[in-house]
Write a structure and sequence with these properties.
two-stranded parallel ribbon; two-stranded antiparallel sheet; single chain; Four Helix Bundle (Hemerythrin (Met), subunit A)
Length: 222
């Protein structure tokens, strides 16, 4: 197999500094029998369970609280698997990058599917949110391959910040499932979903312009 050079990781989220310290601390205290693969599986199972919890929320508000619990479990598995490998000097950069992000994409389908079936977000908004997320994911992976930098956050917002916002929104939904805007009532998660879609589209546009420009200058035809 040809020589592989791991991409530089770029993470500048609001919680990045404290999160990194917490993850290193946790990695140093996990039992030896637990490895990165176990944590990756946990992340996937937790995200599937999160989607099912939102689906359950159509029948009982308990589903919203369960979704918060599974979001926390997903953070634990998804954020800690790579850290554990680095702390133990057991890095598998190609395998880890590939498996981790296939898991992320599959998990996103279950999450958005659950939201679309929850009654707290309309199916169309959930589908549009999934499409916007996957497009941003594709752009990120293409930039990682061509530029050698894996950008994990944009405008100081990364996966952890998104989980926190979703968890807070889920708790708020228990008491306030709708929002009044200009005298009209909308589903709170529809409003949040539209804002998230707009943010992802802007992020996609900015990242695409920036990365296209960088690649053009790097391979400019003379």
């Amino acid at each position: 197999m040809t020589e592989f050079r791991e991409a530089t990781r770029s993470l500048s989220g609001v919680t990045a500094t404290i999160e990194k310290r917490a993850l290193v601390w946790l990695a140093g205290r996990l039992p030896a029998k637990i490895n990165s693969d176990h944590l990756t599986v946990l992340a996937l199972v937790a995200m599937i369970a999160c989607g099912l919890s939102y689906w359950l929320a159509r029948r009982t508000a308990l589903g919203l609280l369960l979704a918060v619990v599974f979001l926390a479990m997903n953070w634990f598995g998804d954020s800690l698997d790579g850290t554990l490998a680095r702390v133990r000097q057991q890095q598998r950069p190609r395998y880890g990058f590939y498996v981790d992000h296939v898991v992320d994409a599959v998990g996103a389908v279950f999450l958005m599917g659950g939201l679309g079936l929850s009654g707290y977000m309309s199916p169309f908004v959930a589908l549009a949110l999934l499409v916007a997320y996957l497009l941003l994911l594709v752009e990120t992976f293409l930039a990682t391959y061509t530029l050698g930098t894996f950008t994990m956050s944009y405008f100081n917002v990364g996966p952890t910040e998104l989980r926190i916002l979703l968890a807070i929104g889920s708790v708020v939904l228990v008491a306030h499932p709708t929002a009044d805007i200009a005298g009209r009532e909308y589903l709170l998660f529809d409003v949040g979903g539209v804002v998230a879609i707009a943010g992802m589209i802007v992020t996609l546009a900015v990242a695409t312009i920036r990365h296209t420009s960088a690649l053009y200058m790097a391979e400019r035809v003379r």
